Amino acid sequence: MIKRLLVTGAGGRLGHHLREPLKGSAEILRLSDIVDISPAARGEEVVQCDLADREAVDALASDCDMILHLGAISGEASFDALLQGNFLGTYNLYEAARKAGVRRILFASTNHVIGFHAVGETLDHKSERRPDSLYGVSKCFGEDLSRFYYDKFGLETACLRIGSCFEAPKDRRMLSTWLSPRDFLSLVRKLIEVPTIGHLVLYGVSANRDAWWSNAHADFLGWKPRDTSEPYREAIEQSEKQPAEGSHYQGGRLAAIGILGKR
Ligand SMILES: NC(=O)c1ccc[n+]([C@@H]2O[C@H](COP(=O)([O-])OP(=O)(O)OC[C@H]3O[C@@H](n4cnc5c(N)ncnc54)[C@H](O)[C@@H]3O)[C@@H](O)[C@H]2O)c1
């Protein structure tokens, strides 16, 4: 078991879901968010920290062995907001991790780095990135930064291109992109446990019938998603008769909307 696992964005939806089950993966969970998520339970440390604050992030990463980096603006936003939380925040985290000798980062990337690919195309880790939003661009930056830190310093990263992680798929698009919370947890656990990952890009998606993404290159992990969106298909197809905004694109609505704050 690793000694100390830092989880950024621990106050968000995914962080909240993982807080309890990740306890068995590290002796100490250091949980952090820009919002207050105290009190710390047994085996936890809680640190309130803005990822854009370089000194605070340096202190945050100290004495950590691995980092699950969930903290970010998690959808489309103005460039200025993304600049702080995602661009600067991710840079600060990688630099702090390097200085602290962190071994591995699990970086919560997104399917929106490939969102301008057409629905029905099958993509893998080598497919061209086609971000569908400034949010997607900010996660492309994080992926490139992680590659740079691996090539230059040997800091391992798994870039997890998470699909749609909700209790259940909510619309037709999610019949392809859904990642069940249970599959997400098993993937994170696997990525913590395997001895070596190098620099790995993979898709966070359940075993959906019409999935657009292949993780064949990551078979060595031995991760098998257990859930599928199929049981939800009939109800979703009944309720969503018209094509949704941006439905030609894998990124869906984010591919269709303009830049926020611009005309
Ligand atoms: N949930 C999904 O389906 C999904 C899909 C693709 C990618 N992701 C990525 O996974 C991660 C977690 O997603 P989520 O659904 O839990 O999002 P979320 O918005 O619920 O959680 C993100 C957390 O990050 C924190 N945060 C934002 N800016 C910060 C800053 N400057 N400093 C410190 N903390 C900050 C927020 O307070 C929040 O608690 C995000 O990076 C998101 O981009 C999620």
TrEMBL record:
CDD domains: SDR_e. Signal peptide: none annotated. It holds the Pfam family Epimerase. Belongs to the NAD(P)-dependent epimerase/dehydratase family. Coiled coil: none annotated. Residues 6-166 form the NAD-dependent epimerase/dehydratase domain. Transmembrane segments: none annotated. InterPro entries: Epimerase_deHydtase, NAD(P)-bd_dom_sf. Keywords: Isomerase, NAD, Oxidoreductase, Plasmid. The keyword NAD applies. Its EC number is 5.1.3.2. GO terms for molecular function: oxidoreductase activity; UDP-glucose 4-epimerase activity. This is Uronate dehydrogenase.
